[in-house]
Amino acid sequence: MMNHERLQGLSYDLYGGRLNFSEWCGLRYERSDPDDTRMAIPWSARIADAEGVIGPGILATMADVVAGQVAASLHDWQAQIATVSLGLNVIETMPAGVGLRGLGRCLVSDEGTLLSDVRITTDDAEQKLVATSRLRMIVVARFDAPARADDHYAPMDITASGPFLGPQDMQFAGDRGELVAQIVAQDHFMGNVTRGTVHGGLLASGLFESVAELGRQHGGFGLFDGTVDFLYPGRDLAMEVSARMVRAGGRIGFATAEIVQEVPGSGRQAVARLTATLRR
Which helix (H) or strand (E) holds 21? Predict the structure, then answer.
């Protein structure tokens, strides 16, 4: 069994089922170790924008899955992990038609939490550093026996062609100061299928892509950095994303974004929030 298949099997068995969004993005597992975790996401039209450029949403997804592998390997594949916060710093704009490589390591860990550092580069010969990330994660479940790398998951049937979170998935309404969008629940957005939760990378993507669109409509701002706080697990339900420009002047802008879901029995619930800095 190839390393990708073995590590994918470990991940799926650990969470009791397929991690749909990771597979839909085309994630390739290369190495999982607390001090040296490596992954790749080859370029494809479904994860890029209409110009063929991978945006901040997929950068955040790469950071989330790399840090998740760091955590899983640290706990010998005997603990399920949830992301508490994800900080993303954009260093360079991605060139069109180029994929990603991610390198992660654990900085600090205790009994139930850990802080990981992730570096993201292009996957071409230049391997240009395009983003860095720090993620705080927490153990949400422990098991007596480690996950097994059973090769019993048939490849997903992927039909989507992109662009990522394009009009087919997310349509914005509003003015230059505030945008609102709806994201319809879809099977390939899922993370922990057995718990019915949306992938953390998809939640982060919705927030970062909303702020990126807000910046474009507000005089050509691009994402500089931002931090996502994951308040509740995202459910397999429609999501409402709102983004607001707090201040914009000169070269720097500040924005916030929030994802809300209508949860049966609980009403409207904010599941994730982003505070971001933009530049032009």
Answer: helix 20-24
- Domain residues for the domain of 88 are 3-142
Give the CATH number of the domain where residue 214 resides.
3.10.129.10
**Are both 77 and 184 inside the same structural domain?**
no
State which amino acid sits at residue 89.
Answer: N
Query: CA-to-CA distance for 127 and 81, rounded, in angstroms?
Result: 29
Specify the residue for token string 């991605």: 94
Query: Which residue, chain included where needed, has tokens 């299928």?
Result: 193
Q: Which among 122, 142, 162 is the end of a domain?
A: 142
Contact yes or no for 79/228 (Cβ under 8 A):
no
Q: Is residue 1 pLDDT above 50, yes or no?
A: no
Which residue is listed with tokens 């597992």? 29
Shared domain check, 87 and 50? yes
Q: How many CA atoms lie within 13 A of 152 on its CB side?
A: 6
67, 133 Cβ separation under 8 angstroms: yes
Determine contact, residues 205/230, Cβ cutoff 8 Å.
Answer: no
Task: Report the alpha-carbon distance of residue 179 to residue 183 in Å, rounded.
Answer: 13
Domain count, the chain: 2
pLDDT in tens, 66-105: 999 999 999 999 999 999 999 999 999 899 999 999 999 9
